[in-house]
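From the shared-data thread, chain only:
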Amino acid sequence: MGERYYTQSHEWVLVEGDTATVGITDFAQSQLGDVVFVELPDPGKMVEAGDNFGVIESVKAASDLYCPVSGSVIEANDTLGDNPELVNADPMGRGWLIKVRMNGDPGPGLLDEMGYAALVGGSL
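Structure, as C-alpha cells:
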C-alpha cells in the first residue's frame, strides 16, 4: 500500500511508486451532495500539480477538480460515466477519478491524514 496525501481543495492522492491515484475526499462528497456527472481528462493528457483537471457536478453545484501531482494521465475512471454515484458511495475507493504517472515527487503543500483532519474539523 502506498502513501495517501490530501489537498486543501479536498482531493486525495494515493502514491504507489511513480503512479498516483486521485479522488475526492469523503468530506468533499458529503458537502457536494449527490454526484450526477464527472468530467475527466483523456489518458495521455499532461497535468500539473495545482491545475484544474476536470469538473464534478452534483445536485447542488459544479466544482473544479485540482490535481495534486504533475505527470501524464494514464487512466480515467470510466465507470463514473454511467455510475457517478460511486463518488458518493465509495469516494476513497471505487469512486477514484484518475491515475497519473508522476514526473517527480507529489506536489507541494500536500497534507497528511492528521493535517487534513485538522483542516476539516476532525473528520475524514
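The chain has one domain: 3-105.
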